[in-house]
Structure formats: C-alpha cells, structure tokens
Write a structure and sequence with these properties.
By secondary structure, this protein is an alpha/beta fold. It contains six helices and twelve strands. A nine-stranded mixed β-sheet has the order 6-5-4-7-8-9-10-11-12, with helices on one face. Strands 1-3-2 form a three-stranded mixed β-sheet, with helices on one face.
Length: about 250
C-alpha cells in the first residue's frame, strides 16, 4: 500500500527549493541591472502622468523634477527618489509614485493649501499635527484673503490653533478676525474685520473673548464706532472710540 502520510523530509525539500529559487531570481535581477538589460535604453519610461487638483504647481514642473530619475528606465527607476524630488517642489505636500505597465510613471500630487499668513514672509497650510507646514515661498505675498498671524519664532502652530479656536467663537456672533498677534510677553491682540482692535492680554483669554462677544452688540448700536476695546479688566472693559471729526474726514 502506498504511503499517503506527509513526509517531513519532503516538506523541508520543497521549502529549501523555494528559497533557492527566490535567491536565484534576486541574483538574476541584480545581474540584469548590472548588465543594463533592464535599464533605461531597453525599457524606457515614455510617459509621466501627473494627477491631482493642481492650483499652484504645474504638471510641467512635476515632470521636470521627476525626469532625471525616470531616465533610468521602467524597472531601474527608484520610485522613492522620484517622490522625494517632486516633494521638494514648493507647494507639493505629498506625492505618490507608481508604475503603470509598460512605459509609464503615475505621479499623484497633493498640494499645500494656504490657510494663513505668518509674520512678514511665511504662509501656514495648517496645524503641524494634521500635516500642515510653515512655508516660505517667493510670490506667496500675492495671495489674497488670508488672515494675518504674528508671533515669536517657532510659535506659529500655537498662534494658528488660537486663531482657529477664536474664529469659531466669533463667527457665531457674525465677527471675523483679520489679524491675530501674540507678543513676546504672551499677550494676545485681535484685529477684527470691522476695524476694532481687541486687547485680551496674557491671562483668561477665552473668558475675556466670551465677555466681548456678550457686549459687542451694545457697542455696535452706539453713535460712535469703537476703535479699541481693552478686556484686561477683571469686571469691565475700556473702550476707545473713533474721533468723530477724524471719522468724518475719512469718509469724506
């Protein structure tokens, strides 16, 4: 009668054969690479397909960054090198690079989205913990409609987070922040789009902001326009009103 039980020796033999075969393929691939049998001249990349909602980066810029590495050929091109080269472009946040048989590299782009201006030359694309970054890019000063944020070096994430929190509270009252500043002493100053400068100081920032929201409607109904509101008082505020003659001259 034939022996139908599994043979340990046979299993070991199959495993060994598979290992040897895999190693042989790796060696063969290395030899081919060294001899140029799968290099750029034999398996050239003919197309660099760029995709993604591009607004500040052109497809031609992406192709120019990827081309030197893609010239190595379909098999030999290091996709990681292509990705790094593309991600060095100013507005590119992330690039995904894949091969498409027989002669194409697919490059998918995600751009940084400008969210706020930082000090004089920087642009913020979001909170760092959520993939945002501080960018310094020539020409970014021409971007319109961004809130202006100011603060000490390396404090951009703190100020951006404060703006997001404050704007959420103020928007419920129909108010919008035009600029937000944190000084070296940790004191906060808000400039609203209606022209009011709001002094919140260093302590109890959120409570002081809430008190201002509670009285802003009263200020709006006054015959004079409030120019500066100082909330750095325990139980009150100080209001500086626009000079009527100066206001008339400005309108005038």
């Amino acid at each position: 009668m034939a022996d139908t039980q599994p043979s340990p020796n046979r299993l070991i033999s199959v495993t060994t054969w598979a290992t040897v075969t895999a190693l042989g393929l790796v060696v063969l691939l290395a030899v081919w690479l060294k001899m140029g049998l799968i290099g750029g001249d034999r398996w050239a990349i003919e197309w660099l397909e760029v995709s993604g909602p591009l607004q500040r980066t052109s497809a031609s810029q992406v192709r120019a960054a990827a081309a030197p590495y893609a010239s190595q050929g379909y098999f030999a091109t290091d996709l990681g090198q292509v990705r790094e080269a593309v991600e060095h472009l100013p507005w590119v946040a992330q690039a995904r690079v894949t091969r498409a048989w027989p002669d194409t590299l697919m490059i998918e782009i995600r751009e940084h989205q400008p969210l706020a201006r930082w000090n004089q030359t920087g642009v913020l694309s979001g909170l760092e913990a959520q993939g945002g970054a501080l960018l310094t890019i020539d020409g970014s000063e021409d971007i319109q409609g961004l809130v202006r944020l100011y603060g000490p070096a390396n404090q951009h994430d703190l100020v951006l987070q404060a703006w997001l929190s404050m704007q959420s509270e103020l928007a419920s009252a129909g108010l919008h922040i035009e600029a937000l500043a944190l000084d070296e002493r940790g004191s906060w100053t808000v400039t609203l789009s209606n022209g009011i400068e709001l002094l919140l100081g260093r302590e109890n920032r959120d409570q002081r902001l809430a008190r201002f929201i509670g009285i802003h409607e009263y200020l709006r109904t006054q015959p004079q326009r409030a120019e500066r509101v100082d909330m750095r008082y325990a139980n009150g505020m100080a209001v500086e009103w626009v000079d009527a003659n100066r206001e008339q001259g400005r309108r005038g």
